[in-house]
């Protein structure tokens, strides 16, 4: 079930959603709840969101996430800021059992495209203290309104070794966990087309 606020509330937007867990005899098991509220005024935009997933990490192991994001278009560049609180892995298999994330980024128009810069800090609040930092840079070259070329490079600094089954944050293939030969840098290049 989902409800969206009307779209003409002086820049306010919001939604509430709920899904049943589809478990016979229980409306709560495996259920999910989410809500968000946002505000847009001129070059400024912000959103606050909350998600709750019952039994996301096994029976009785629920997950919650709070997200705040904002951006501001300064004209010469657009700045971004995100802050996320993770309690339990709301996405199964991800090591977010108790952590906070901070992202600071910018998009800068250069020529027919834009450069993209970002920094992410993950604060692992568990006893393992598997903190991580990611630095990334990229460029998007617009061929048309619907097609663009892109390239990016990212590097992660981890407190956890890359052989750890959990707690290692990575920029390569997500299935490569535990691979002692895997690095902590990645580069991408490709074409994006909007249909």
TrEMBL record:
GO MF terms held by the record: porin activity
Signal peptide: none
The organism's place on the tree of life at top rank: Bacteria
Pfam families hit by this protein: Porin_4 (PF13609)
Subcellular location as annotated: Cell outer membrane
Entry keyword Ligase: no
Cellular component, GO, one term: pore complex
Keyword Transport belongs to the record: yes
GO aspect biological process, one term: monoatomic ion transport
InterPro entries according to UniProt: Gram-neg_bact_OMP (IPR050298), Gram_neg_porin_domain (IPR033900), Porin_dom_sf (IPR023614)
Bilayer-spanning residue ranges: none
Domain Porin, residue spans: 6-160
Membrane topology category: Multi-pass membrane protein
Keywords: Cell outer membrane, Ion transport, Membrane, Porin, Signal, Transmembrane, Transmembrane beta strand, Transport
Assembly and binders: Homotrimer.
Protein name: Outer membrane protein (Porin)
Organism of provenance: Cupriavidus basilensis OR16
